[in-house]
Design goal:
It contains four helices and five strands. The chain is an alpha/beta fold. It has one domain: Rossmann fold, CATH 3.40.50. The protein has a five-stranded parallel β-sheet with strand order 2-1-3-4-5, with helices on both faces. α3 links the parallel β3 and β4 (102-106).
Length: 138
């Protein structure tokens, strides 16, 4: 059975996440993150419109189900205080921690939870990918 991985990142990084997903799929992993294929975009203006409430709920439910079905959550972070964002990736990491999933952070330690001893941290995707090779026994 392959390792099931959820990729968490800013929505604007979805094309980058697709390349990492392809890399992981080629290594025999299953990617559970539907959002990376571009179907979960809501404009910032749309966040306050009731007309999009159904979509927002569906996106949240899909992301939650995708995360719960994964074995590992890999969270791609940003330099602290470098951007304004909605922060869904932080919630996703919190859910992963709370449900006992293996958590990996790639990039920067944006908050104190990224410093927990059970959270693996790698500055780059290359470092994280190398560690995943070891995890998968390659």
């Amino acid at each position: 059975m392959s390792v099931r991985i959820y990729l968490a990142a800013r929505y604007s990084r979805r094309a980058e996440m697709q390349t990492y997903a392809e890399d992981l799929i080629a290594a025999g992993c299953t990617i559970t993150s539907r959002w990376i294929y571009g179907s979960h975009q809501i404009s910032d203006e749309g966040l306050s419109l009731e007309a999009t409430a159904i979509d927002r709920r569906r996106f949240a439910e899909e992301d939650y189900a995708d995360l719960i079905s994964a074995d590992i959550c890999i969270s791609f972070t940003e330099p602290p205080r470098s951007t304004n964002s909605r922060g869904g990736r932080h919630v996703e990491l919190g859910i992963a921690l709370g449900t006992g999933k293996q958590c990996i952070v790639v990039g920067h330690r944006e908050n104190v939870f990224h410093c927990l001893p059970d959270v693996a941290f790698y500055a780059t995707w290359v470092e994280a990918r190398t560690a995943l090779h070891v995890l998968a026994g390659e």
